[in-house]
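User: Predict UDP-N-acetyl-D-glucosamine dehydrogenase's structure from this.
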Amino acid sequence: MATSTFDTLLQKIETRAARAGIIGLGYVGLPLAIAVARSGFAVTGFDIDPGKMVALEARRSYIDAVSNEALATEIEAGRFQATTDFVGLAECDIIIICVPTPLTKHRDPDLSFVETTSRSIAEHLRPGQLVALESTTYPGTTDDIVKVILEGTGLKSGADFFVGFSPEREDPGNQHYHTATIPKVVAGDGAEALALMKAFYGAAVSTVVPVSSNATAEAVKLTENIFRSVNIALVNELKTVYAAMGIDVWEVIEAAKTKPFGYMPFYPGPGLGGHCIPIDPFYLTWKSREYELPTRFIELAGEINSAMPRYVVGKLAEALDMRAGKALSRSRVLVLGLAYKKNVADIRESPSLRLIEIIEERGGRADYHDPFVAEIPPTREYQALKGRKSVTLTPEAVAGYDAVLVATDHDSVDYAALAKTAALIVDTRNVFNRLGLSADHIIKA
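Assistant:
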């Protein structure tokens, strides 16, 4: 039966007769759905958020990586549809899971979304389907959780259905790479599952990178983000040390990166943001406890990066005291940039939220300006900030603040005008120096 089921599904994929179901239409799922639809497959997107359905029905994309035009093209061509009704999973030949994998408040993996989604798939599982997980997680999740839940139906992986893993590699705001051009790591539970993963993803993306097991593919994604986390922590720590010595860490990095070998530049900031780098390393930390192995580098990097917002607010308080003779507790501060990185609207795990919280814990008043985020949406950790609106960046508004704290260096901001009107600027991104704007009231942090 395995060969017959495999051959039938492989032929459906190769002829684009297979229907793909994408569960989770967020930053990962929606761009993937459109890329798969463009490659000729019929795609059904599933999500529990009715608000997304309203937007998609109106041909309105809520993800920067997907234009309204691209969305409308695939909908009107009949290649993409979206629904909150998971009954449609039974009609899908390929099912891709793109749901969140956050941490609990104790930094343990929260796989509730993956487990719930797997149970929903199990309710509609039938022979001849390929189920792939894209959500970042610890090695073993696909085989030990997703596969086990699906086999609870009595159907068997590798015989009746197939299971694989392919880590998402989305980079919001990246103008050079998008879903279809980023190399895709793929793996499967057995040779046939891997062959199906290669065939399906190979039809939608330019390059497929097969690896030997689902656990290996899961480890690939963790390794990529741990690499970034550790190196960012290193330059954040160097920033604090060099600042104490009167040395500009950004000048050091610019000079160091002229070496054509053996060095790769990373840059300090006010803390880590985004769904991946602040979270993913702790999935491996948690899993390593099962093997009684320490992950000292990972945990130390997390501690350093998590401490950056408080360090930055300390530098802000120091600058207010030294330059304006005013305590932070009596000051109004404008945080420039709410998104975790420039030129996007993504505020997931943004250090700006923590900066606002710390400023107000210390008695100050913090507002924010972000050209991409008009209002702070509900978040799990910062409920008190919900509903606050972006301040319009006029000279009169800026002049009303005791300091401007640059947390995100969006390109659309007029930094020259800001330098003229702000009483004090604390720059965590070195944007003013990069633009050749220097003055006594501009402080790096």
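Residues 69 and 421 are 39 Å apart (CA to CA).
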